[in-house]
Amino acid sequence: MNQDDSVNSSNLESWFEDVGAPAKVLEYLTSDSFPLSQYKQKASVLDLGTGNGSALFSLRQEGGYTGPLVGIDYSDQGIQLANRLKIHFANDPEDERHIAVRDMTFDVFDLIKESPEKMPWWPKDGTGFDLVLDKGTFDAISLSYDTVPDVHGAQQHLNQVYPAKIAAMIKPNGFFLITSCNWTEDEIVRWFTTTKSIQGVFDVFDKIKYKVFEFGGRKGQGVTSVCFQKRA
């Protein structure tokens, strides 16, 4: 059997789909309230923890984002699937998700240990991406017990260095949209506005609202999405 014979739209199982997050995020990114929706033909997007690339395929086909789209993931298996899907969609116009895949890149990358500026997909102007998406990567990193040394040799947990890593990937006035099921909205805001290494870097631009649940007299969302804008 050909390697791509088993590759089709059924491989595009999506992140946080049980709470409708993919549709909500896509709706927001294509709405008039999001500034980049007016520049979809040029906006550069970096998708962290891209997995099978479903978020970027949706942005391209359904959202009309035709600028450079880059998906990175620590998992080689996920990137292999994303690249097979990319080839499948490019070569099979009968597939319902047939799309132009020009300027779409999927690559294995460790965003904690590696430098994005050295990668061939880094934006040519050198300032970073217009939009960076996190759909559970911060959640996963926050569960890790691994540490890395800071410039003074002190050990830091990965989620402590993550905010600065993300900030460095976004161009001035660019956006960071993070979706989390492990942190509350207030906690996410604190992580990306008060962490010492990036204080004064991000402002909260907007928040996506989801269905509210009530349990034990307390209300909350099963998932939270916060959009930050990097200061110029």
Describe this structure in words.
This protein is α/β, with parallel strands linked by helices and 232 residues long. The protein has one domain: Rossmann fold (3-Layer(aba) Sandwich). Helices cover 25% and strands 25% of the residues. The chain has 6 helices and 11 strands. A hairpin with a 2-residue loop joins strand 9 and strand 10. One of its GO terms (cellular component) is cytoplasm. Keywords: Cytoplasm, Methyltransferase, S-adenosyl-L-methionine, Transferase, Transport. Its EC number is 2.1.1.-.
In short:
Belongs to the class I-like SAM-binding methyltransferase superfamily. EFM4 family. The chain is of the alpha/beta class.
What labels would you give this structure?
alpha/beta; 25% helix; 11 strands; 232 residues; globular; seven-stranded mixed sheet; two-stranded antiparallel sheet; Rossmann fold; 6 helices
Q: Given this structure, which CATH class is correct?
A: Alpha Beta
CATH superfamily: Vaccinia Virus protein VP39
Residues in β-strands, percent: 25-35%
Number of strands: 11
Number of domain modules: 1
Average pLDDT, rounded to a whole number, is 89
Based on secondary structure, the structural category is: alpha/beta
Order of helices and strands: HEHEHEEHEEHEHEEEE
- Portion in helices: 25-40%
What is the level-2 CATH architecture name?
A: 3-Layer(aba) Sandwich
The biggest beta sheet, please? 7 strands, mixed
* Strands in their spatial order, largest beta sheet: 3-2-1-4-7-11-8
Low-confidence stretches: 1-5
Tally of DSSP helical segments: 6
- Rg for CA atoms: 18 Å
**Terminal Cα span:** 52 Å
What is the fold named in CATH at topology level?
Rossmann fold
